[in-house]
Design brief:
The protein is an alpha/beta fold. It has one domain: 3-Layer(aba) Sandwich (Stationary-phase Survival Protein Sure Homolog, Chain: A). It contains nine helices and eleven strands. The protein has helices spanning 20-29, 70-81, 100-103, 107-117, 135-139, 148-160, 213-219, 229-234, 253-261, and strands spanning 8-12, 34-40, 57-60, 63-66, 87-94, 122-127, 172-177, 187-189, 198-203, 206-211, 238-243. Helix 1 (20-29) packs parallel to helix 6 (148-160) and helix 2 packs parallel to helix 4.
Length: 268
């Protein structure tokens, strides 16, 4: 902990340091600890864990703007600009980051994953918007007040999760807030949905990639079962998924057999 008595929070995101979601989360967390912003200078959405060899750093009124990816920001922050951080918070993202297939491509979630390899607890925070996908999503305007529920949830978890022992068995939390009418939402613990509905449609000389699940969300036709992150958002809950970062391995008898029969040097 820092001398102020609250945690020292390294705050990053993938929408860029000047995005309204980032400023909303910075304001929400400033009441519980010292917030050091180390975030991309511009929008770096959906870059996953892309990493740069060198990045430029600029002073910013909130901290530091990095000409790089969210993963760059975590490495630069924890190794150079904010090495004594107690927790990394990533967000708040415009749009939910739900579903197992989304986790690896999301810059917001990837920043939390990177923090886990430093053994620093992390929270990824996203705000669902009922905009569908494509141009409709890009045109959907949000402002700082629209991230109030996400900020409330992030503040609550940053204040309490470490002391409650959450991070003894969890590397990071993936938090998604529903779109509300201004009233507070309840919180529920979830697992990532396995529903996958990506399409690729040929159009002349190009192909358009489309994630149909966002249109399902907007229409209210989500088939995900209770207990999943996407279902929780559709039902108006704040979704919290406790996740681990390192890949896991499972004993696989069939693969053991293949390895044992692999021709050795003398048989080649």
């Amino acid at each position: 902990m820092n001398t102020s008595g609250g945690p020292r929070i390294l705050l990053t995101n993938d929408d860029g340091i000047d995005s309204p979601g980032f400023r909303a989360l910075h304001a929400a967390l400033s009441s519980v600890g010292e917030v050091v912003a180390v975030a991309p200078a511009d929008d770096r959405s959906a870059v996953g864990r892309s990493l740069s060899r060198r990045v430029d750093v600029q002073d910013h009124d909130l901290g530091y703007a990095i000409e790089g990816t969210p993963t760059d920001c975590v490495v630069v922050g924890l190794e150079s600009l904010c090495p004594d951080a107690d927790v990394v918070v990533s967000g708040c993202n415009k749009g939910a980051n739900v579903g197992a297939y989304v986790l690896g491509r999301s810059g917001t979630v990837s920043a939390a994953v990177e923090a886990a390899f430093f053994d620093v607890p992390a929270v990824a925070v996203s705000q669902y918007v009922p905009a569908g996908t494509g141009e409709a999503y890009r045109a959907f305007e949000v402002d700082e007040p629209d991230f109030a529920e996400a900020g409330r949830a992030a503040r609550y978890l940053v204040e309490r999760a470490e002391g409650a022992g959450v991070f003894e068995t969890t590397d990071y939390l993936n938090v998604n807030a529903p779109w509300t009418d201004g009233g507070p939402a309840e919180m529920t613990v979830t697992r990532p949905s396995t529903l996958y509905d990506m399409t690729a449609e040929r159009d002349g000389g190009g192909v358009t990639l489309l994630d149909r699940t966002w249109d399902r969300m907007k229409e209210g036709s989500v088939p995900d079962p209770v207990g999943t992150d996407r279902r929780a958002i559709a039902d108006g809950y704040v979704s919290v998924s406790p996740l681990t970062a390192p890949h896991t391995t499972r004993h696989h008898g069939a693969l053991d057999g293949l390895a044992e029969s692999y021709p050795g040097r003398e048989e080649e």
